[in-house]
Input
Amino acid sequence: MSHLLRGHAPITDEGWRLIDQEARERLLPGLAARRLVDFSGPKGWEHSATNLGRVENTNVSELKGIEANRRVVQPLLELRSRFTVSRAELRDGDRGAEDVDFTALDAAAQRIVEAENTAVFHSWPKAGVQGIAAASPHKPIVRKKSFEDYPGCVARAVELLLRNGVAGPYGIALGREDYTSVVETTEHGGYPLLDHLRQIVKGPLVWAPGVKGAVVISMRGGDFAFESGQDLSVGYDSHDAEVVSLYIEESYSFRVLTPEAAVAIVAPKGR
Amino acid sequence: MGFDQYHEPPEELPQQTRTFARLCASLTEEAEAIGWYEQRLAVEQDPDAVAVMSDAVGEEYKHFSMDLEFLLRRTPKWRAIAKGVLFQEGDIVEHGEAAEAAADDGPDGDAPGAGERAEGIASGNGSLGIGSLRGEGL
Output
């Protein structure tokens, strides 16, 4: 049995099928980082650190004639988002109910999606993760309130990347507000803004809950590395007569290898 | 030359199952080649020929390993069992039994291309089988 302890949960095979299916459906739409950056793994729960190929600059040896250097590694981050499921609802699911209440699961999925996106695209200093926008040396491009200049902003971001020798195709992680506006906006002449942006970047436009504004990044590969240990999984914690306590879990590290391969687009101040 | 890797009418099989069958056939061919080279090397007396065939069998090792890795990535329960068996010290059969029992703790879904795996849900280890989504978007 794995550390997820699924075999100890008072949940039938059908119950697990419903839970896994619901979790997957709720997680997939918002996992923006995995659509835009290099993904490796999953390397398993036992995988604890990413090899950086470097050593500390300090000789830690106390022995004459011996040099000793400690390797530098990036520890993986463990994320866990807890939720409960009513045992009565699970019994209904076993009977064939098609509307089992997974409200808490849905909220847990959204939390872990936003946490993954926030770490990758912005930063999570306490977790030792520097995100794409925070690492970028480029000054963020400030869009207008109305979004009418959005194609121009994206074009400027792409031109900035090209000027720095960063080839495409490019992709855009769109925060909630930017995504909604991009999808609903048409330019002069009725041309959808979405189609215009696609022509500029030649890559995917991705809904990225947790991202503030937007981030234009190169998708040529080799610039951003997401290393998965335990990929997103559902595990068991405890139960009582009424509810089963479960969690969605993953472990990963994220590294920006080419900071200049991304440009942030931000909202004007004073909004 | 036919389409011997299929046991069912190919037109009735989903694309992913046909791909899976092709890689299974390839895996078998690589394993056969490794066995043939092993026999040839056992009897060959010419050192130059031994050198050439030793180099060639290395290619087969690589091909077999790549085929296997592909198949394991597409079959979570197989992968879970393989993790408990491959590269482990000790009794192979014991590891196999333990790995199978551990994989059986999860919901079923061991047939490649079947049910849950078709939906991308890894069944053996609790993983939701999401992995990379690179390039997917609007």
